[in-house]
TrEMBL record:
Its EC number is 3.2.1.-. One of its GO terms (molecular function) is mannosyl-oligosaccharide 1,2-alpha-mannosidase activity. This is alpha-1,2-Mannosidase. Residues 262-271 have a biased composition (Basic and acidic residues). It comes from Oryzias sinensis (Chinese medaka). The keyword DNA-binding does not apply. It catalyses: N(4)-(alpha-D-Man-(1->2)-alpha-D-Man-(1->2)-alpha-D-Man-(1->3)-[alpha-D-Man-(1->2)-alpha-D-Man-(1->3)-[alpha-D-Man-(1->2)-alpha-D-Man-(1->6)]-alpha-D-Man-(1->6)]-beta-D-Man-(1->4)-beta-D-GlcNAc-(1->4)-beta-D-GlcNAc)-L-asparaginyl-[protein] (N-glucan mannose isomer 9A1,2,3B1,2,3) + 4 H2O = N(4)-(alpha-D-Man-(1->3)-[alpha-D-Man-(1->3)-[alpha-D-Man-(1->6)]-alpha-D-Man-(1->6)]-beta-D-Man-(1->4)-beta-D-GlcNAc-(1->4)-beta-D-GlcNAc)-L-asparaginyl-[protein] (N-glucan mannose isomer 5A1,2) + 4 beta-D-mannose; N(4)-(alpha-D-Man-(1->2)-alpha-D-Man-(1->2)-alpha-D-Man-(1->3)-[alpha-D-Man-(1->3)-[alpha-D-Man-(1->2)-alpha-D-Man-(1->6)]-alpha-D-Man-(1->6)]-beta-D-Man-(1->4)-beta-D-GlcNAc-(1->4)-beta-D-GlcNAc)-L-asparaginyl-[protein] (N-glucan mannose isomer 8A1,2,3B1,3) + 3 H2O = N(4)-(alpha-D-Man-(1->3)-[alpha-D-Man-(1->3)-[alpha-D-Man-(1->6)]-alpha-D-Man-(1->6)]-beta-D-Man-(1->4)-beta-D-GlcNAc-(1->4)-beta-D-GlcNAc)-L-asparaginyl-[protein] (N-glucan mannose isomer 5A1,2) + 3 beta-D-mannose. Disulfide bonds join C552-C584. Keywords: Calcium, Disulfide bond, Glycosidase, Hydrolase, Membrane, Metal-binding, Signal-anchor, Transmembrane, Transmembrane helix. One of its GO terms (biological process) is carbohydrate metabolic process. It is found in: Endomembrane system.
């Protein structure tokens, strides 16, 4: 079906392919209003409006008159019909318009011949030029009122977001399945009954699982749930009603070590200055070519946007704030602050990755606040945190991976096993959310992340390991894939750091960390025949002898936790950390560029080498340098600074271009192509960890600061402050 609208006066003709009932109804309503007006004002030749239900009966691609049944016209009439739009005839709107225009121009179809189908018999025709200004104005008014009405209905009627989710927004996998069958056909249509029944059965099974899950809860937990549900009403109304600047006042005291002393040793001083120069080049290039965009394309010298942040802008600015601060780049820090004040906007109708937005934006803003004391960062962090809360609206409280910040509709990555949430994503919110509660006085943030632990603690863990996939509705594991690299990594990191950040009061986090590290050692950590210790991945009981660049952060994590290790394991864990650092260094040393591949293997006769083409790239990742930094702090073994310096030289040689720093596609090729992306984590993490590697230990000392997984430093929340939640030391 198509709808035709002809404006004879302006010689304009529009055809609307009407694919859905919604658009049909809207356009019919629109036409009816105009037709009514047409009757009232008595200007019959203004517009020709008619829904054409059987355009196939008209000659293909031609201009013709045809009798029509039009819902807006009281008696049979004739309309100009152009067949082809959306009907698979290959006739474009332009062709049709030109065809009509030519007919009008050549006099084959004088305007007069068009009039009958727009006029009603009892009215006399009036010339086009005599159309009154007031009538035009009324028309415009009615049209705007109608459009406003439509938009109002679309966005504010209770169920309209669901209705539209399949039309304008990407909808959740679950919703898609309920709305249409796998082939996209309407539920209830012929041949679809089986699928609908299947769906009902699946929903029923899911409801049973959820009920079973709730029944497994301890009476105390159920009481707590009821209590927190009761609190939800005032909390959520707080959320909606409270403006960011209604936050409770906080007395700001900067924790020690935001700015450290100059390195004593001249060579280290020079190296640190070199890293600062690299930061300046990366920042200046971003500022010059991509200011306000999420990231920079350093080769093509333009902005780059990743869909991880929806339409939130400025990822590089927020991610770099604390690095600029600790490097004492005050002019740059002030420009970044001004951009945040004036431009950072979370009121976007876009789907974002909850994890990425949390670690980069919430983490970056929190650090900027704790370093500088500027209120704007606290307000923006809390505002964004509140926008992320709807992600936790699942049966278990395990959050969705993706969230539409405007509608609050969440879903999971379509590729994740059985609609699961990802361990490294829902498990990497804890540090930031604890600080959000502290800075806002709203305990909902802390409750949400503490509940994630509860869900995990109730589940059986295969060999004590945490699978990467967990269904947020059933509360059951998905595929049994375990990894300390991608999909799993920062979950383990946040268990340990939650304990450290709580001034070592979070015993639950501590136990979960050391228990899981024990399981990882038993089931995943292996030594190659060449003597390299590596962390493999586990897939349904089978080991894959591969280690990712991402996994290399584990050297630093294990070193950071060694001091608190149970029994007499401190020495053993420090050795393990050092071995992992050595393996990761080898993965760099065995390449042509002296930069590490995305993943390297220990099978098929190779050790610490990437064998697959799609694992040979380097995207300016920080994890290996992060481990060098921790190892340096804990051992002061000069080799870690040397290894860091090797990385600086390789970055300068192979990744630096006139417009910034770029990733490379193959670290084994001496002449690799560039990927043309300067990742925001290069400024947040890689350069920050290099700078700290060449700094004295009094810069961001570990007994006062804990780094989130994007290297944003967050202060330790002192024991004595826990009853004074809004005070920062
Ligand atoms: C960073 O965004 C974070 O470190 C995250 O935890 C995983 N890796 C990237 C950088 O490699």
């Amino acid at each position: 079906m198509i709808l035709g609208i002809l404006d004879v006066h302006n010689h304009r003709f529009c055809l609307y392919p009407a694919g859905t009932e919604t658009s049909y109804l809207s356009l019919t309503l629109f036409m009816t209003v105009l037709a009514g007006l047409h009757q009232v004002i008595g200007r019959p030749r203004l517009l020709s409006l008619a829904p054409i239900r059987s355009a196939e009966s008209l000659p293909t691609g031609s201009v013709s008159h045809a009798p029509l049944t039009a819902s807006c016209l009281s008696e049979p009439t004739t309309a100009l019909c152009l067949r082809g739009i959306g009907m698979g005839t290959g006739c474009s709107p332009q062709q049709l318009f030109h065809s009509l225009a030519a007919s009008l121009k050549e006099g084959k179809m004088p305007v007069a011949t068009l009039l009958p189908f727009t006029s009603t018999p009892n009215r006399k025709s009036v010339s086009a030029t005599s159309f009154r200004l007031t009538e035009k104005f009324i028309l415009l008014l009615v049209f705007s009122a109608f459009i406003t009405l439509c938009f109002g209905a679309i966005f504010f009627l209770p169920d309209s977001s669901k209705l539209l989710s399949g039309v304008f927004f990407r909808s959740s996998a679950v919703e898609t399945n309920t709305r249409t069958g796998p082939d996209g056909s309407e539920p209830g249509s012929a041949g679809n009954d089986g699928r609908v029944l299947d769906k009902i059965r699946k929903d029923h099974d899911m409801a049973l699982l959820e009920a079973k899950y709730i029944l497994q809860k301890q009476p105390d937990d159920i009481k707590n749930d009821i209590f927190s549900d009761k609190n939800k009403v005032p909390n959520s109304s707080d959320q909606n009603g409270k403006k960011a600047n209604d936050l409770p006042s906080v007395e700001f005291h900067r924790p020690p070590g935001a700015i450290g002393s100059e390195p004593r040793d001249p060579e280290t001083r020079e190296r640190r200055a070199k890293v600062k120069e690299m930061m300046k080049h990366a920042w200046d290039s971003y500022r010059r070519y991509a200011w306000g965009s999420n990231e920079l394309r350093p080769v093509s010298k333009q902005g780059h946007s990743s869909n991880l942040f929806g339409s939130i802008k400025g990822a590089t600015i927020v991610d770099a704030l604390d690095t600029l601060f600790i490097m004492e780049m005050s002019e740059e820090f002030n420009a970044a602050t001004e951009w945040v004040e004036k431009n950072l906007d979370f009121n976007v109708n876009a789907e974002v990755s909850v994890f990425e937005v949390n670690i980069r934006f919430v983490g970056g803003l929190l650090s900027a606040y704790y370093l500088s004391g500027k209120e704007v960062f606290r307000q923006k962090a809390v505002e964004l945190g509140e926008k992320l809360l709807p992600a936790f609206r699942t049966s278990t409280g395990i959050p969705w991976a993706l969230l539409n910040l405007k509608s609050g509709v969440g879903r999971n990555w379509p590729w994740a096993s059985g609609g699961s949430s990802i361990l490294a994503e829902y498990g990497t919110l804890h540090l930031e959310f604890m600080h959000l509660s502290k800075l806002s006085g709203n305990q909902e943030f802390a409750q949400k992340v503490m509940n994630i632990r509860k869900v995990l603690n109730r589940l059986d863990k295969p060999q004590g390991l945490y699978p990467n996939y967990l269904n947020p509705n059933s509360g059951q594991w998905g595929q049994h894939h375990v990894s300390v690299g991608g999909l799993g990594d920062s979950f383990y990191e946040y268990l340990l750091k939650a304990w450290l950040m709580s001034d070592k009061t979070d015993e639950e986090g501590k136990k979960m960390y050391y228990d899981s590290l024990q399981a990882i050692e038993t089931s995943l950590i292996r030594k190659s025949s060449g003597g390299l210790t590596y962390i493999a991945e586990w897939k349904g009981g089978l080991l894959e002898h591969k280690m990712g660049h991402l996994t290399c952060f584990a050297g630093g994590m294990i070193a950071l936790g060694a001091d608190g290790a149970p029994g007499d394991k401190t020495g053993h864990q420090m050795e393990l950390a050092a071995e992992i650092a050595r393996t990761c260094h080898e993965s760099y040393a065995r390449t042509a560029l002296k930069l590490g591949p995305e993943a390297f293997r220990f099978d098929g006769g190779v050790e610490a080498i990437a064998t697959r083409q799609n694992e040979k790239y380097f995207i300016l990742r920080p994890e290996v340098i992060e481990t060098y930094m921790y190892m340096w702090r804990f051992t002061h073994d000069p080799k870690y600074r040397e290894w860091g310096w090797e990385a600086v030289q390789a970055l300068e040689r192979h990744c630096k271009v006139e417009g910034g720093y770029s990733g490379v596609r193959d670290v084994y090729s001496s002449n690799p192509s560039l990927d043309d992306v300067q990742q925001s984590f290069f400024l947040a993490e890689t350069l920050k960890y290099l700078y700290l590697l060449f700094s004295e230990d009094d810069q961001l000392p570990f007994d006062h600061w804990v780094f989130n997984t994007e290297a944003h430093p967050l202060p330790v929340i002192r024991k004595e402050q826990t009853d004074r939640p809004n005070e920062v030391e």
